[in-house]
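Re: weekly structure request thread

Next one in the queue (61 aa):
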Amino acid sequence: MNEQNKQVYHPGEIVPESGIYECDCGKAHEFNTDVKGHRFPPMHHDCPGGGWKLREATHAD
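Done, posted below.
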């Protein structure tokens, strides 16, 4: 796992790389697809996590 995969991005921050992000609560149950340049969404109402971690980078076409 590279350093970027360990970075936690908080709701409202700018997405640095398009990809599939997972919540940081450790349950790996919440996933979100985000596009570079957009803002990260709020955490889901039932998720105790505080941010998003890159799970898999994707290419925005």
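The longest strand covers residues 52-57. Helices lie at 3-6.
Next request, please.
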